C-alpha cells in the first residue's frame, strides 16, 4: 500500500472513531427521561386511556398474574390456559396472554458456516404465569371502505 493510502485509511478510521464517540447518550438511558411510574403508558389517546384511567391501571406486563386480572374482570368468558378473553365493559373485550413454559418458547434456526444452529429462547422463570400481552377488542365496530363510499357496511357485532 502506498504511504498516501495508509494515511487515507488512518484518516477514515480517525473520523469514524470521532463521529461515534461524539454522539450524545441515548435519551432512554438518562434518569431524567425515564417513564413516569404513575403513567407507564403515556401514548394512550384521549377517550381511550384504558391503562391510565380505566380498569387496566393496576395491571402491569410481566408483573400481574391471572389472579390479579380476575379480581378486576371476573372469570374468563371461555376456559383456556394462556390466552383468555374477559369482558372489559359493554363496548370492549380484552384478551390477556400469559407467559407459560409450553407456549412462550421462541425457537428458530440459523445457518453459520454451513452448520445449522437451533436456538430456543425460554421465558424467565419469574415471568411464568404473568401477563405477557393485552389486546383490547371492540364489540361493535364500523368498517369504512377506502374506495370513496362505493360500498356501505353496516355496524357489525364481533362473533
Topology summary:
Elements: H1 3-21, H2 66-73, E1 83-87, E2 92-98, E3 106-112, E4 115-121, E5 131-138, E6 140-141, E7 156-157
Antiparallel strand pairs: 1-2, 2-5, 3-4, 6-7
Give an overview of the whole structure.
- This protein is of the alpha+beta class and 159 residues long.
- The chain has one domain (36-157).
- The protein contains two helices and seven strands, in the order H-H-E-E-E-E-E-E-E.
- It has a three-stranded antiparallel beta sheet with strand order 1-2-5, with no helix packed on it.
- The radius of gyration is 25 Å and the shape is extended.
- The termini are far apart.
Query: How many domains, in number, for the residues?
Result: 1
- Helix content estimate: 10-25%
Instruction: Give the count of helical stretches.
Output: 2
Task: Identify the overall geometry.
Answer: extended
Distance, first to last CA: 72 Å
Q: State the strand order across the main sheet.
A: 1-2-5
Structure classification: alpha+beta
Q: How many runs of DSSP E, i.e. beta strands?
A: 7
Give the low-pLDDT segments: 20-33, 147-154
Q: Could you tell me the radius of gyration in angstroms?
A: 25 Å
Main β-sheet: number of strands, strand sense, barrel status?
3 strands, antiparallel
Mean pLDDT level? 76
Order of helices and strands: HHEEEEEEE
Strand content: 15-25%
Amino acid at each position: 500500500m502506498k504511504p498516501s493510502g495508509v494515511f487515507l485509511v488512518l484518516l477514515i478510521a480517525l473520523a469514524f472513531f470521532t463521529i461515534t464517540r461524539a454522539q450524545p447518550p441515548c435519551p432512554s438511558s438518562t434518569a431524567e427521561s425515564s417513564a413516569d411510574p404513575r403513567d407507564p403508558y403515556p401514548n394512550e389517546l384521549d377517550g381511550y386511556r384504558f391503562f391510565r384511567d380505566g380498569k387496566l391501571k393496576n395491571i402491569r406486563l410481566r408483573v400481574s398474574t391471572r389472579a390479579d386480572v380476575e379480581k378486576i374482570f371476573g372469570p374468563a368468558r371461555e376456559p383456556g390456559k394462556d390466552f383468555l378473553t374477559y369482558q372489559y365493559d359493554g363496548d370492549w373485550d380484552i384478551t390477556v396472554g400469559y407467559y407459560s413454559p409450553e407456549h412462550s418458547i421462541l425457537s428458530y434456526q440459523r445457518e453459520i458456516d454451513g452448520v445449522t444452529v437451533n436456538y430456543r429462547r425460554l421465558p424467565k422463570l419469574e415471568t411464568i404465569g404473568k401477563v405477557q400481552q393485552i389486546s383490547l377488542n371492540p364489540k361493535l365496530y364500523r368498517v369504512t371502505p377506502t374506495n370513496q363510499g362505493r360500498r356501505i357496511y353496516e355496524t357489525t357485532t364481533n362473533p
